[in-house]
């Protein structure tokens, strides 16, 4: 590989592919993925053994001549497994915020994260790096409502989340449990779900029955909620239709719907100047 890559001793190595000592690369502290499948690492190592590292790792400069990994954790682990002394990297300028976002995006694109890891990564970027939900949603290419819904999953108690992880329950299971009013009830129901092997539909059904009993068996409340929901959908369709009419008339209007805690947010953008 030496004839293809520059030496890391060169003065200008930024944005160029160079080779660096593998023991000088430290892990990304903002890596959202907590668990790595060893079998997939071994498979990747076998590929690298035969074809080399096709895609260089992304790193940034650290103190004392070291480098901090930005993207390529699996490749780094596979190279370490092969006991490679040097690996190809691209050295880029990047601050803590961007490094954390890139590490998250890489995993999201490869669908490597569990829904709890994704939620924890969002929470970390908001609390530790000062991003708003809107800024974060734009950076990771997700709707703000998606980010908000992921963050809600973190409200579940730690032991309940562990049960969900250990028994590979789905995100919909977790969302259903959030409807229960207290942690004790959530623990009891998740244990019942695991014991009986309930799927999502069955889990949602028993949770609805519990909520029905808690409400005193008053069906009219549920009917009222459905009626209100139906009205909201009518309003939403009215907004969409209005935007559609404007677009058909040559006005480049756009609308965006976000589901926030306690309310729906509709944003309509209409250009100031309209040319026909």
Question: What is the compact description of this entry?
Answer:
Belongs to the ParB family. This protein is an alpha/beta fold and 276 residues long.
What would you say this structure looks like, in words?
With 276 residues, this protein is an alpha/beta fold. The protein has 3 domains: 90 residues, Conserved hypothetical protein from pyrococcus furiosus pfu- 392566-001, ParB domain (Alpha-Beta Complex), CATH 3.90.1530; 111 residues, Arc Repressor Mutant, subunit A; 41 residues, no CATH class. It contains 11 helices and 8 strands. The strands form 2 sheets. It has a 6-stranded mixed beta sheet with strand order 1-2-6-4-5-3. A two-stranded antiparallel sheet has the order 7-8. Helix 1 packs across helix 2 and helix 4 crosses helix 6. It starts with 5 loop residues before the first strand and ends in a 7-residue tail after the last strand. The N terminus is likely disordered.
Q: Briefly note the CATH topology name of the largest domain.
A: Arc Repressor Mutant, subunit A
Number of strands: 8
Describe the global form: globular
User: How much is the radius of gyration in Å?
Assistant: 25 Å
Derived structural class: alpha/beta
**What is the share of helical residues?**
40-55%
The averaged pLDDT comes out at 81
Beta-strand percentage?
A: 5-15%
Strand order of the largest sheet: 1-2-6-4-5-3
Mind sketching the topology for me?
Elements lengths: L5 E2 L9 E5 L3 E2 L11 H14 L5 E5 L5 E5 L1 H9 L4 E6 L4 H14 L5 H15 L3 H8 L3 H9 L5 H9 L4 H8 L4 H14 L3 H15 L4 H30 L5 E7 L2 E7 L7
Parallel strand pairs: 1-2, 3-5, 4-6
Antiparallel strand pairs: 2-6, 4-5, 7-8
């Amino acid at each position: 590989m030496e004839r293809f890559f520059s030496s890391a001793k060169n003065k200008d190595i930024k944005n160029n592919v160079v080779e660096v000592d593998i023991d000088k690369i430290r892990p990304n502290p903002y890596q959202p993925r907590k668990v790595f499948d060893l079998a997939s690492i071994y498979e990747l190592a076998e590929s690298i053994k035969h074809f080399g590292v096709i895609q260089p790792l992304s790193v940034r400069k650290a103190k004392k001549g070291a480098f901090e990994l930005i993207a390529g954790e699996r490749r780094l682990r596979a190279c370490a497994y092969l006991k490679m002394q040097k690996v190809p990297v691209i050295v880029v300028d990047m601050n803590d915020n961007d490094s954390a976002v890139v590490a998250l995006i890489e995993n999201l694109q490869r669908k490597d994260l569990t829904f709890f890891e994704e939620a924890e990564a969002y929470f970390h970027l908001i609390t530790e790096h000062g991003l708003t939900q809107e800024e974060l949603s734009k950076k990771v290419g997700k709707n703000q409502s998606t980010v908000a819904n992921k963050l809600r999953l973190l409200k579940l108690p730690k032991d309940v989340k562990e049960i969900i992880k250990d028994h590979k329950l789905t995100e919909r299971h977790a969302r259903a449990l959030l409807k229960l009013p207290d942690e004790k009830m959530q623990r009891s129901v998740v244990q019942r779900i695991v014991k009986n092997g309930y799927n999502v539909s069955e889990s949602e059904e028993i949770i609805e029955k519990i909520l029905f009993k808690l409400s005193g068996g008053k069906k009219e409340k549920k009917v009222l909620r459905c009626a209100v929901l139906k009205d909201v959908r009518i309003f939403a369709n009215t907004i969409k239709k209005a935007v559609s009419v404007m677009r058909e008339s040559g006005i480049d209007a756009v609308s965006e719907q976000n589901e926030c805690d306690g309310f729906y947010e509709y944003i309509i953008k209409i250009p100031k100047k309209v040319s026909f």
